[in-house]
Write a structure and sequence with these properties.
Length: 147
């Protein structure tokens, strides 16, 4: 049996959360998704702080990170992750509606693993998230520090 790996979804839009979970459910991975609603909560989860202080240790296999979030945006979160020795190898995929060149360039400059623009149509969005879930949740090998 294949072990399902945990996915962290950082998304503030409830409709996008629902669509993402629906797509991952089709890939039979929705039960391994933790949802956080902004950049601050994302870092608290990863660092086991605040409301997440008592969670089970370990990092997710991938962080699906939106760029435009309250309190701290995805670019700032990525910068923090890549500068933290305990988090720097965590795979991060920007899953965003931003098509701005500056966001794309900043993300890759800071070490994002992939940049996926959310398709506008429902079917395209579902397909994109399914593929992300299968690759990052089942196929990709995570660094030993994440296990």
């Amino acid at each position: 049996m294949i072990e399902l790996k945990k996915i962290l979804l950082a998304e503030d839009n409830p409709k996008d959360v629902e669509l993402t979970l629906e797509a991952l459910e089709d890939s039979m991975m929705a039960n391994r998704v933790v949802v956080v609603k902004d950049g601050v909560e994302t870092l608290e989860y990863l660092r086991m702080q605040g409301a997440w202080a008592g969670r089970e240790p370990g990092l997710p296999s991938v962080l699906l990170l939106d760029i435009k979030m309250p309190r701290m945006d995805g670019i700032e979160v990525l910068r923090e992750i890549r500068s933290d020795p305990a988090l720097k190898f965590l795979p991060v995929v920007m899953l965003t509606s931003s098509r701005e060149d500056k966001d794309l360039l900043n993300s890759y400059y800071l070490g994002v693993n992939a940049y996926v623009v959310k398709p506008v149509n429902f079917g395209g969005f579902i397909d994109a998230v399914k593929q992300l879930g299968i690759f990052w949740g089942l196929v990709n090998e995570v660094p030993p520090e994440n296990k």
